[in-house]
Amino acid sequence: MLITVDIGNTDIVTVLFDENKHIVKQDRINLKSVLVNSNLDYFDNLFVEWNLKNINYIVACVVPDILKSVEDKFLELSNARGIILESHMLPNFTNDKSEVGTDLIAVSFPFRKEAIPTVVVDMGSASKIILVLDGQLKSVAIMLGVQNTMLALASRIKHLPEVKLEFPDELLGETTVTAIQAGLMYSQAYGIRGYVDEIEQSLKQPIKRILTGGIGAIFKDKLTEFTYEPTLLNDGLYAIYQEVIQND
Question: Do 107 and 211 belong together in one domain?
Answer without folding.
Answer: yes
